[in-house]
């Protein structure tokens, strides 16, 4: 079986976990996609795992998927099965969402509007194997990291790391306009409308990123999806926050390659990680008895 993920741990861990579920670029032999590979590869959150690779130097743990999101997406519910993609009816009660309708459910149907990933229907067995061999092990690994950390510290901060195409980075509530379109934002933090993470951490990180000279929005255009929702319970010290980085900050999006701006952004992401580590150290609750 292909390797599913990597876990990088520090010598002296803080209750701080980063995960990069969409940066994987090892394409399984049984993928059998029919679209152009260069277009398919644009679905990756390219180099996000590399941007956060220094997390262990600051006490953070980094989990990174190695398989591509276009094969199966860890940031979708396991029941978000696209019926239009299957050769037969799903046997166990699927619950397709608007993401499946748009071709970007658990198993991606469209690489972009009008361009299918496959020239065939997928079998039930094929999808089930992807869930069992790739999706579930990734979720199990993240759950164990979060649960073990919460057990050992009584608190945990989980940061779900992504990148967004500049074309998708435009807020619904514009912070600026280019012609009649809203201006793309540099970073978007998602805490599911304040329900997945303490506002103090969300706002603190937002203000830190702004102080570095970037534009930042919260929950607009992205709020956080499955991986944030699963591990969030702020009232019990389980904080989960999604971070989206505009690809134009570090990629030539047309060529899907690092731009000359990559080193500068990498240094700033390292500062972002350092801020998170300092925040966690300063906000650990004293567990002494009342």
Detailed description of the structure:
With 290 residues, the protein is of the alpha/beta class. 28% of the residues lie in helices and 18% in strands. It has seven helices and 13 strands. It has helices spanning 37-41, 48-51, 98-101, 124-153, 199-211, 226-230, 262-282, and strands at residues 5-8, 16-20, 61-65, 110-112, 115-116, 156-164, 177-178, 181-182, 187-190, 216-218, 238-246, 251-252, 257-258. The strands form four sheets. Strands 1-3-2-6-11-9-10 form a seven-stranded mixed sheet, sandwiched between helices. Strand 7 and strand 8 (181-182) form a beta hairpin. Helix 5 packs antiparallel against helix 7 (262-282). 39% of the residues are buried. The model has no long low-confidence stretch (mean pLDDT 94).
